[in-house]
Design goal:
The structure is a single chain. The chain has 2 domains: about 150 residues, 3-Layer(aba) Sandwich (Rossmann fold), CATH 3.40.50.720; about 180 residues, Rossmann fold (3-Layer(aba) Sandwich), CATH 3.40.50. It has a 7-stranded parallel beta sheet, sandwiched between helices. Strands 2-1-5-6-7 form a 5-stranded parallel beta sheet. A two-stranded antiparallel ribbon has the order 3-4. The protein is built from 14 helices and 14 strands. The protein is an alpha/beta fold and about 350 residues long. Helix 1 packs across helix 13 and helix 5 crosses helix 8. It is about 35% helix and about 15% strand.
């Protein structure tokens, strides 16, 4: 089956071949693989796709007679879907394939498969790391040491340096990542509260999390971690009203999406010491390195990283294998497990 695979900076041609060979076994010979290299320039948005690397029109021009299209960060636009007259399957090794025009694929009757939970361990690890960096001033201390001005820098930091043991962590979004985070947080002696309308009280208790409403979580937590997918329901779910419910000593962590928080409200809360600090890996405008107007960059009570929580060597290979497993089911005519748009199958 003619298969176009688009490697990127993180998942190379070699890694894709390894995942296919080790996962598919004898089925590997059924794939007629062709690899396309793109200029990996990041783009925030193009029509209905987001957060991708490469030229959408280049992909559209190269789809040609491909039957399967495999990507990670490469763009799969409406033009690519329409150009792929023989496309039978689009595979994207991301938990949320925002770089794929799923609506166009559904209209064309093409199923899109994804790799749910592929980065859950990576993000959970990173969330604990960036929380510790903010709570214990680790990043600020490192920069001060390098600058040879530790005593001067310390005068600008908040004076509270709490331990984690015995404190309360509130987890907003108890899905793949939230559950992994809970397991790690328990090792630090944290009591866990969780808010997620789609996870039952019983399921949360199984992983040691007490289910509460959002207001209770915000009022009682010493540390709040936002681990949600960006939907209409979660866009700016934490605004001025919600931030004012938090303790003045609380730390907010966001490793999900920048738009899940009202950034202006968060900036005001940090500037006016309504909350003690924040650890942010995601922002409304990315990449943050190309946003000189970002107000958080100059603040002393914020730890910032450039949307890297989900990145790890293990995660990249894991996502590729999840995709390869579903491609194997597709080749055998079996039901695929991770179809994002089941309506596309129903239309066939």
């Amino acid at each position: 089956m003619k298969t176009l695979v688009i490697p990127d900076t993180y998942v190379s041609e070699e890694l894709w071949r390894k995942a296919f060979k080790e996962t598919l076994g004898d089925l590997y010979s059924k794939l007629e693989l062709r690899f396309l290299t793109l200029e990996p320039k990041f783009q925030a948005e193009y029509k209905r796709i987001k957060e991708f690397g490469g030229d959408p029109l280049k992909v559209a021009a190269e789809v040609k007679d491909s039957e399967i299209l495999v990507v990670q960060f490469a763009p799969v636009s409406e033009e690519a879907v329409q150009a792929g007259k023989n496309l039978k399957l689009i595979a994207c090794s991301r938990s949320t394939p925002v770089n794929v025009d799923v609506e166009a694929a559904t209209e064309a009757g093409i199923p899109v498969i994804k790799a749910p939970g592929r980065n859950a361990d990576s993000v959970a690890d990173f969330t604990m790391g960036i929380l510790l960096a903010e709570v214990r001033h680790i990043a600020r201390a490192f920069e001060a040491v390098r600058a040879g001005a530790l005593s001067t820098a310390e005068s600008r930091w908040r004076k509270s340096i709490p331990e984690l043991n015995g404190k309360i962590m509130g987890i907003i979004g108890v899905g793949y990542i939230g559950r992994k985070l809970a397991a790690r947080a328990k090792g630090f002696g944290l009591r866990l509260l969780g808010f997620d309308p789609y996870v039952s009280k019983e399921k949360m208790l199984e992983i040691g999390v007490e289910k509460v409403d959002l207001e209770t979580l915000l009022k009682e937590s010493d540390f709040v971690s936002l681990n949600v997918r960006l939907t209409a329901e979660t866009t700016k779910m934490l605004g001025k009203k919600e931030l004012e419910l938090m303790k003045k000593t609380a730390i907010l962590v966001n490793t999900s999406r920048g738009d899940a928080i009202d950034e202006e409200a968060l900036y005001d809360a940090l500037k006016n010491n309504r909350i003690a600090g924040a650890a942010l890996d995601v922002f409304t405008k990315e990449p943050i390195t190309e946003d000189p107007e970002n107000k958080f960059i100059k603040m002393d009570n914020v730890t910032l990283t450039p949307h890297m929580a989900g990145v790890s060597d293990d995660m990249m290979y894991r996502g590729s294998c999840i995709i390869a497993e579903d491609i194997g089911r597709f080749l055998k005519g079996e039901k695929m497990e991770n179809v994002l748009n089941p309506n596309a199958l129903a239309s066939k």
